[in-house]
From TrEMBL:
This is DeoR/GlpR family DNA-binding transcription regulator. Pfam families: DeoRC, HTH_DeoR. Keywords: DNA-binding, Transcription, Transcription regulation. It comes from the Bacteria. Gene3D superfamilies: 3.40.50.1360, Winged helix-like DNA-binding domain superfamily/Winged helix DNA-binding domain. The lineage of its organism: Bacteria, Bacillati, Bacillota, Clostridia, Lachnospirales. Residues 3-58 form the HTH deoR-type domain. One of its GO terms (molecular function) is DNA binding.
C-alpha cells in the first residue's frame, strides 16, 4: 500500500471512530509503527488530524452526504421520540445535523411554532412548511452545510428558546460532548444555555470516541435521547430510549 493510500485510509478510520492508536493502525495496515507515525505527522501538517499520546484524533467532521446515509433508521426512531416534547407556540432551536433534520420532519406540522437553526438543509426543508423559520447568519462550513462563527453566536445570544435539540459528533467515555471543529464549540455551548429545556439526540455510533474540543457534558442537557445502552452510575443524566 502506497503512503497516499495509507493516509487516506487513516482519515477514513478517524472519521468513523474519532480516534485511533498507532499500534492499531500498524497492525491493520501491516506496516511498522514508525511508518504510521510518519503518516500521522504528514496528516497533521496537512490539517487532517491532531496527534495525541500513542495515536491521533480527527480534526475534520464527516461530510453531510456521508452523515445522511449513516444510521438513518436509528435517527428516524430517535427523531420520532422528540415530537412529544414540542408544544404549539414553542420557539425551538435545531442544531445542525442529519438527526435534527429528521426532527424537523417530525415537528413541521405542529401549529404556531418558530424554528431557529444553524443548518442550511433544515431551513431548505422547512421553507416549504407553515413553520416560522429563522436561519442564523455567519460563515458556512460547506462540508456539513452548517453556519458558525462569531456572527452566528452573537445572533444566538439574543434569543431565549423553549426547547433545543442538539446533535454531537463525539461523546467520550467520560461523558464529554466533543467536536473536531473549534469554531463550533463556543456556539453550541452557549446555545444550550439559551434553552429552557435541551435535548441531546444521538445514535449509538457517537459514543466512546475521542475528540479535540470539548463543548460540554452529558449532564448539561435536560435529557439524552439515544439508542445507546447507557449506564449512568451517578444518576446525573436522564436517558430516553426508543
Amino acid at each position: 500500500m502506497f503512503a497516499a493510500e495509507r493516509q487516506s485510509r487513516i482519515i477514513e478510520i478517524l472519521k468513523e471512530k474519532g480516534s485511533v492508536q498507532v499500534d492499531e493502525l500498524a497492525e491493520l495496515m501491516q506496516v511498522s509503527p514508525m511508518t504510521i507515525r510518519r503518516d500521522l505527522v504528514k496528516l497533521q501538517n496537512d490539517g487532517h488530524v491532531e496527534r495525541c499520546h500513542g495515536g491521533a484524533i480527527a480534526r475534520e467532521e464527516t461530510a453531510y452526504a456521508d452523515k445522511r446515509t449513516s444510521h438513518k433508521q436509528e435517527k428516524k426512531k430517535l427523531a420520532a421520540l422528540c415530537k412529544q416534547f414540542v408544544a404549539p407556540g414553542d420557539t425551538i432551536f435545531l442544531d445542525a445535523g442529519t438527526t435534527t433534520l429528521e426532527i424537523a420532519k417530525q415537528i413541521k406540522d405542529i401549529e404556531n411554532i418558530m424554528v431557529v437553526t444553524t443548518d442550511i438543509e433544515i431551513s431548505r426543508y422547512l421553507i416549504q412548511s407553515d413553520v416560522d423559520l429563522m436561519l442564523c447568519g455567519g460563515m458556512v462550513q460547506k462540508s456539513t452545510g452548517s453556519v458558525l462563527g462569531p456572527y452566528a453566536t452573537q445572533m444566538i445570544m439574543d434569543f431565549k428558546f423553549d426547547i433545543g435539540f442538539f446533535g454531537a459528533a463525539i461523546i467520550s467515555g467520560t461523558g464529554e460532548v466533543m467536536t473536531p471543529t473549534v469554531e463550533k464549540a463556543f456556539l453550541k455551548r452557549e446555545t444550550v444555555k439559551r434553552c429552557e429545556k435541551s435535548y441531546l439526540v444521538v445514535d449509538e455510533s457517537k459514543f466512546q470516541k475521542q475528540g479535540m474540543i470539548k463543548i460540554n457534558e452529558l449532564k448539561d442537557f435536560s435529557a439524552i435521547i439515544t439508542n445507546y445502552p447507557f449506564q449512568d452510575e451517578k444518576g446525573e443524566v436522564r436517558i430516553i430510549s426508543p
